């Protein structure tokens, strides 16, 4: 009987020990440990942010005027468009330094990577072209003539259509990714800056900075079906300039950066109605979700910081100082 009691006590002790360790490990393990890379246009750097501690852990020196930025599909590298160096630099995530560059046209700004991560389409602002780059071969495959001052880039979920927006021509160009030819030009409001597809391919949204609207385009019909406008009490309409767009995976909610209005608009992506405005840093440019969509981070160019938005609460919870004139943002699992 005494032996049995000792064995029972030992089992209970072991159970408590391992249960306690499990609880401790669960508490110690970050719930969402992601890494964000922010391009700082004026300081010619990229800030690396740990989304668990919300701190800058590294500042990487890059080329002149970095803007568009995106992780490779395997998460091992980050591409950053350095406009004044006319190239796409490659950052090794493990080394946290620039290790290579890809050829581009003059003044690359934004780009889009295809689903396989093998082809990169780059908008070259000063050349009115979209450059096609073979990522593995590090070679240019060709270029597509588009409108004046191309910027926004987006690939449809099925990979068949590439959207490029031209700021001066005020168009969204629909490009067939197989033939690499423009198949449609859709007129939008003045100075279109960004394009974003819904995951179900039912809509593509294009922001017009000077026009002050977001055009909702039916990709099948290739026509504008709705225009979303923004009104903020106390602000002149000229100060409300839509740029970056973030769309949740379920296609129900969109967030639109409103530039010098220092606000992010929350939009019901089904009814296309603005439901809320969130005050962020000064001159908000672009944004990116954490992969679990718990947080949305915005780059604020004039205040030189990043705002962290709790997506569920629709509330800004943190501000992080980065380099000068933060512009682009990309986030992935380290």
UniProtKB/TrEMBL annotation:
UniProt protein name: YVTN family beta-propeller repeat protein
Coiled coil (residue ranges): none
Lineage of producing organism: Bacteria, Pseudomonadati, Pseudomonadota, Alphaproteobacteria, Hyphomicrobiales
NCBIfam families, sorted: beta_rpt_yvtn (TIGR02276), PQQ_ABC_repeats (TIGR03866)
Transmembrane segment boundaries: 12-38
SUPFAM superfamilies, per database record: Nitrous oxide reductase, N-terminal domain
Organism: Bradyrhizobium retamae
Superkingdom of origin organism: Bacteria
UniProt keyword Transmembrane, yes or no: yes
The entry's keywords: Membrane, Transmembrane, Transmembrane helix
